[in-house]
Structures are given as structure tokens and as C-alpha cells.
Amino acid sequence: MREIQVSQITEAVAKLCMDAAYYLPTDVYEGLKKGRDTEESPVGKVVLDQIIKNAEIAKDEDRPICQDTGMTIVFLEVGQDVHFVGGDLRDAVNAGVAKGYVEGYLRKSVVAEPLFNRKNTQNNTPAIIYTDIVPGDKVKIDVELKGFGSENKSGVKMLVPADGREGVKKAVLDIVKAGGPNPCPPMVVGVGIGGTMDQAALLSKRALLRSVEDRNEMAEYAELETEICEAINKTGIGPQLGGTTTALAVNIEWGPTHIAGLPVAVTICCHAARHAEVVL
User: What is the pLDDT of residues 191-208, one digit of tens each?
Assistant: First the structure.
């Protein structure tokens, strides 16, 4: 049994929040540059130049890529041979989020109650926390900063098996088209297929952690990812003001589901596709 002080979790989460806010993942940065090279719209090229320059300034000066530093989603993979000491794990994660957002001068965007008083918590907590127990004695932490310009344009479609492959493709395209330029494209589109309504949404969030360069390990899903991405890039939405670079990638994750169901969830992420990872 390996002991880990929860203070280590707090420090790790705080650093991940700041790193994710300041430093665009390399795969996303390179994807934007490739999009700039292939973009057919002159206006689209200008927009992509500005997006790329913004990411470079953020990295060089340790500043947030976007003023909306998101709601913090934390994925924990906890080895079953780990024993946390010194406090509560969930409290430690939230303390890390608070520390990262306060000390990193990141915008605090979380309200404690969603409908009536909407009072800001002043430190971006609580985080959305998902925990999986896995073999081993290590802890993997993924932090995803989810902006709400794109989150607000995400959605779930409860299809039936008869809708099949074309139904899934249509569902994703319908959601993307409805969002138009509002999610600040070029976007990364996370798609969750299967499970229940809530699990499909979780799968779509996890899909955003995968590199935009990596396709699904199952050939049929990899082919569908490419096909949907090409279809999205033909919509003309483009990088905010029109063009051919609407999506950098479509990442699909799937799970088992009921014989009567085919849930499809789509999480749209803006060009500031921010996430960071560490293994303790």
C-alpha cells in the first residue's frame, strides 16, 4: 500500500489549472497551424493567424489563453493500492482548484447555485470531479478547463438503434450547425456514443482529452471520426468568420448500451482546448 498526502494532490491540481490555462496543448497548436496552411478563406487565414499569435503570447507571458478560464473538470484515476492521508481527497482537489485560480489570476466563473441567486464562489470551486479506481499504486490527474461559450452549444440526442451510423452523423452535424460560430471555432468535437444519457455525455468529455492527431482504435469509429470532421469542415462555419477550418478533429469514445438505445452526446470545445495531465 502506497501512501500519498492529499497536499500533493492540491499542489498538483493547482499547477495543472495554471498550465492548462496558459499553455495550449502541442497537438492543438500544431492543428491550428495546419488549419492555417489549408484554410481557403482569406478572412479565415487572418483569424487563424490571430488565434495562433494569441496562444503564443499566452505561453510566453504565462497569461490565460482566453478570458473565460472555464469550469474545472478533474478526472482522477486512482490506483487501488493507494491510500490517501492527511485529509479528504475531494476537498484536496477543490483546494487545488482554488489555489490555481487565485494564485494564477484566472477568472472565477463558478456560481454556487444555478438558478436563483447565482452567487459567485470567488475561487472557481467546486470542480466537477470524476474518479475511477484502477489497478496499481499511482494517481493520474487530468484537468480540463471547459469554457461555456462552447459548452452552451453542446447537446445530447437519444437515438434508437435503427438510426444507425447515418443517424449518429446527422445528430452530430445538427448540434454543430446549430452552434454556428458561437463556440469560437476551430473546435474540437468530443462525441460519446452508448451507455445512458449521462454516460454518453461523460464519454464526450473524456474524448476531448485525446490528442487531435489520434484516431479511435476501432477502425469503424476512426473512419466515422474522419467522415464527420470532413462534413463539419464543409459547413462553411470556419474559424469564427467563415471558412473551411471549422473543426480540428472529431474524437469519438463509446461504451456498451441497452438493446433499445443509441445515446449520442456532443461536447463542443473551442479552439482553446485546454487540458493538462500528471501522474503521481
Answer: 999 999 999 999 999 999
Q: How confident is the model at residue 240 (pLDDT cuts 50, 70, 90)?
A: confident
For the record, the C-alpha cell of 70 comes out as 472555464
Query: What integer pLDDT is reported at residue 39 of this predicted model?
Result: 97
Strand partners, 133: 78
User: What stretches of the chain show up as alpha helix (H) in DSSP?
Assistant: 6-22, 26-38, 42-61, 89-103, 148-151, 164-179, 197-207, 219-232
Give the separation between CA 185 and CA 174, rounded to whole angstroms: 16
**Contacts of 193 by beta carbon, 8 Å cutoff, 6+ apart:** 168, 200, 203, 252, 253, 254, 255, 262, 263, 264, 265
Report DSSP state, residue 119.
Answer: -
Beta strands at 187-195 and 262-269: parallel, antiparallel or unpaired: antiparallel
Which helix (H) or strand (E) is 3 found in, with range? strand 2-5
